[in-house]
Structure formats: structure tokens, C-alpha cells
């Protein structure tokens, strides 16, 4: 019993310093970005950015005004675009299309920075997420049934004019809550990872889920990180993702492929539930997104194989 307690204590003591370093990096990234976006939103510049991409939205079956929700999602967590959707008159079909776009491309500045720190190209991931958002919306517009019922009434806060001081005070409180949430989740997740390693549960997970990973075009060693990314998400799971990859527990090529997958399909639980709660069918924000990520991974494998074959032929 004493030996087990000591192993648990060791796991906690080894996990917290790593979590602390990642938290410092993450909060230094999140707070300035959040403030910058809040100022852009307050000034109305985000609305002008949305107007610039209005024509694209008509092609994918959405009214031009929905571009505002999408632009908000690029810079902020999903609560922001959902709040914007609550001020619009959209059908459940339109909300479903907009949901898939926001689920793929939300909070890109922070989440793409996490993926860059784990070995991927920032701009490749950024363009992959934006490109797949519009491709998914185009496909959803073709596949979704025309009649999905009326959208439920979404309770939205009444729009209230705020002074600059009131806006900054509201931002300060919301950012403080977010920071506390991140600290608790990241620290807890880091300790959990250390416990799983200490008691060799990570090895069991890797063996059990390796076949599932290979079907998706991923290495069997990705099992735990795949679950972290799809249950907790990229921001909250950043400490574990960064630590595993920087410590060489996952090969760089395997890490990049995992990032390609997670760029499209991540946080299948929490983020999807936010849209399910406002009436979007669960199937359309989970299963097709996962399948799209699998297809993208195998396409990248295919392009890589063709490229390597061409190099070998040119060499000889």
C-alpha cells in the first residue's frame, strides 16, 4: 500500500512541473489573443471581415450574415459563435452546416500554435482547417436533407451597448474564469497521464487501440493522444500532447499525421455537445467529421507515397 502511495505521489510530483511550464506558455498566448479579438469585436472590425467573405457563404447554402459567426469562431472558443447564432434566424439545416465549419476551425490562433509546438507547420495546419471547413460545408449542403425541421428557439442575451470600461471588466472576469478552468484541467490531465504511465496502463491502451488507429491511418502509439484530443480537445490537452512529443514518445512523422487528423476531428465530446444542445443532430457533428479526418490522413499518406516514389525514380 505504501509503495502504491509513493508511486502516486511520484506521478503527481513529476506531472505538475511539466503542466506548469505548458500553462505559462499557453496563458501567455491565450490572454493577449483574447484581448486583441475582444478589441476587434468592440470596434466592429470583425463584422467588416465577415462581410468580405459573404459571397462564399451563399455557395454553401448559408445566408451572408452567418459569416459573422464563422469569423468569430476562427478567433474564439465555440461559445462566441453560438452566441452569435442565437441572434440570427436560421433553419436547423443551416445551423448544422455552420456548426461543422465552426467545429473544424474554431479558436485557430491558439490551437494551431499548439499543433506547431508539437511539430507541424503552422500554416499547413491553418490552411488545412480553413479549407476543410469550407469543403465540409459544401458536402454537408449536398448531403443534408432539405427538411430537418424548424430550429429551436435559442435563448440569446439581449444586445446591450457597453462602454469601453464595462467591456474590459466583462473581458477580465471571463478571461479569469477561462484561465482557472485551463489550469485545473491541464494540471489534472498531466497528473492522469503520469499515473497511466507509472502503472503501465498507457502500454495497454496502445496495444488495445492500435488496430483502430491503423484503420484511421495513424500509428498505434497515438492511442492515448488521440483520446486526449478527441475528448478533452487541443487547448486543454496541450500539456499532454506537447510533453509526449517533445519527450520522443511519438515519432515526428506520426505526430504530424496525428495533428492532421486532429485539425479536422477533435473534441468530439464537449464541442459537439454545445451544438447538439441547440438542436443540431448528433450524427452530423460527430461521425462524418471523424470520417473526413480519416480520409484526409489516407490522402496525405497517398500523396506522400507518390512523392517518395517519384524521388526514387528520379534518383535512379
Output the keywords.
316 residues, mainly alpha, 76% helix, 0% strand
C-alpha Rg (nearest Å): 21 Å
Helix content: over 70%
Q: What is the tally of helical segments?
A: 15
Series of H and E elements:
HHHHHHHHHHHHHHH
Distance from N terminus to C terminus (CA atoms, Å) equals: 63 Å
Q: Give a count of the beta strands, DSSP E runs of length 2 or more.
A: 0
Structural features, described:
- This protein has one domain (2-315).
- 76% of the residues lie in helices and 0% in strands.
- The chain contains 15 helices and no strands.
- Helix 1 (2-43) crosses helix 12, helix 4 (67-75) runs parallel beside helix 6 and helix 13 (252-264) packs antiparallel against helix 15.
- The relative contact order is 0.12.
- Mean pLDDT is 84; it is low at 155-159.
In short:
The protein has 316 residues and is mostly helical. It has one domain (2-315). It has helices spanning 2-43, 45-52, 54-59, 67-75, 79-85, 92-105, 108-117, 122-143, 164-198, 201-215, 223-232, 238-246, 252-264, 270-276, 282-315.
Itemize the secondary structure elements and their pairings.
Elements: H1 2-43, H2 45-52, H3 54-59, H4 67-75, H5 79-85, H6 92-105, H7 108-117, H8 122-143, H9 164-198, H10 201-215, H11 223-232, H12 238-246, H13 252-264, H14 270-276, H15 282-315
